[in-house]
Amino acid sequence: METVVDLPVRDRPPALAALKDCGSVGIGLVPLGLAFGAFLTHSGLDWWWATIFTTFIYAGSFEFLLIGLAAAAAPLASIGLSAFLVNVRHVFYALSFPLHRVRGRGARAYSTFALTDESYALSTTDSARDWDGARILWLQLFLHLFWVGGATAGGLLGSLIPSSVVGLDFAMTALFVVLAIDAVRERREDVPTPILAALSAGVARVVFPGQMLLVAFLLFTVALLVRCAFRGRTASDA
Fold this sequence. Notes:
- The chain is mostly helical.
- The chain has helices spanning 14-42, 48-56, 61-71, 76-87, 89-96, 105-113, 117-123, 133-156, 171-186, 192-207, 212-237.
- The longest helix is centred in the N-terminal third of the chain and has 29 residues, at 14-42.
């Protein structure tokens, strides 16, 4: 009788290992894609625009914003500024994303294009330090396919999903909560970071409730920079 051997994750083919790495997050992208596809069709666009948007733009939250801008016939300058403000965080992602492990110009170009919050969060953990470029690339591809598939299905089913359905708009929030919990579990010794994030959110909620998200991000960024500078000075003094 043939014996089935379950290979360790690191000994599996890169595609299979990547699918296991991103499976839970990818499944979380599906309802978000469904919400996007339904929102797109409810805005008066044909269902296949969901496939085009998610395949060639692939910008997550900005895609939701872009539908409204396109429906309102916003000027290109306004669309460009909005895209910059929403996605400027990716500039900082690039500083620590392991793009140097990805080989080949075409592969690097796609990896840069497919750098999302989810792929960054999964590829920069301590357990991902030994991942090779192929595994990272497969992970990004699978996440992209989950997003495109969910959005396409949402576009096709858009006419069957009433606009009164609640909960789909919470899919993105829930997904980022899961990613944050995984990051905290991965770095249990780094207790100050989640504390700083909670304090930043609390202060922003009390002082600037109308601009909570923006202010919380700014406070958290400043807090991290101050902590980094303090640690650097302490290390140099030692």
